[in-house]
């Protein structure tokens, strides 16, 4: 229906905007901390790089989910929608939303489990 169509346009625009605004941290941009402790509120460079890599891995895993699962996962976990709101926006039964969310979370755990258990290539 109309709300599904409108949501799809808004959803795609939000994803495009989020991708454009993704922080890219290069080694040249990182400040090297010469002390033992990072300045208050800052991550040590190696921790910041690891955090950036982890965020990318989660994004990549979410991108690998089927569209129907990814949409529901993003709406619930990132946008904070309740099950009923998701069901209304996507024109689905609340039970369908719950089952797809369960499958999306399970698949995400599987995908991220591989990343976490793979030895690093350093």
Description:
- Helix content is 68%, strand content 0%.
- By secondary structure, the chain is mainly α.
- The chain has one domain (1-9, 45-122): Arc Repressor Mutant, subunit A.
- Helix 4 (83-90) packs across helix 5.
- The longest helix is centred in the C-terminal third of the chain and has 24 residues, at 94-117.
- The N and C termini lie far apart (50 Å).
- Residues 25-37 have low confidence and may be disordered.
Summarize the structure.
With 122 residues, this protein is an all-alpha fold. Helices cover 68% and strands 0% of the residues.
Helix content: 55-70%
CATH superfamily: Winged helix-like DNA-binding domain superfamily/Winged helix DNA-binding domain
| Terminal residue distance | 50 Å
Alpha-beta classification: mainly alpha
Can you write the helix and strand succession as a string?
HHHHH
Radius of gyration: 18 Å
What's the structural blueprint in terms of helices and strands?
Layout lengths: L1 H19 L24 H20 L2 H12 L4 H8 L3 H24 L5
Helix pairs in contact: 2-5, 3-5, 4-5
Please supply descriptive tags for the structure shown above.
122 residues; Arc Repressor Mutant, subunit A
